[in-house]
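REQUEST ID: PR-0412
SUBMITTED BY: lab tech R.K.
PRIORITY: routine
TASK: structure prediction, single protein chain
INPUT:
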Amino acid sequence: MYHLRGLMNEGLIEKHDGRYQLTIKGLQLVGTLSLKTGRTREQPKILNAIVCRNTAGEYLFTRWQRQPNVGLVSFPHGMMHYGEPVMKMAAYELAEKAGLQADLEYKGDVYVRGMLAGVLDRHMLVHIFEATNAAVADHAEVVGESFWATLDSLRPEEFVPGFYEIARLVGASATLLFEDIEIEVGAPAPAE
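STATUS: complete
OUTPUT:
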């Protein structure tokens, strides 16, 4: 009973109709547990990234003005919000990061594992969307500095880790069914 009360006080278990059951908070915690070790484990972040090209062949990039990526460049992107539809979140990220609305088409996924000094630093599944027919979004509150540029006009070290590699993949293929990349965070990107 001592441990059961502790779990109830933490909001992980509740008594319902004479039976104990996991609360929503408890279910969320269980979803992070390893069945082998019983410990919580880090899960990959799920992001939506939007690729938009203009008629000059330039990409729309965002230079981040807040942590953890201050001053770094990427495609407009953001993390999925729990319970939100993927396409709705992709449209939201394009509006928030670049002040645009567009027709979006899913192009594939890129799985990024970033190592820093031999330790896993980032673990992301990135849904890639292509934007066409872009126009200024209504009521957009932009949080980054957006600009158009070719990939070769930027240095690899200017990018949010993983996004230079994603941009290279996108430039080389019309459709990304699934790509799996591992990078060394803080290391210069490999020469082509």
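NOTES: The first helix runs from residue 2 to 9.
REVIEWED BY: pending
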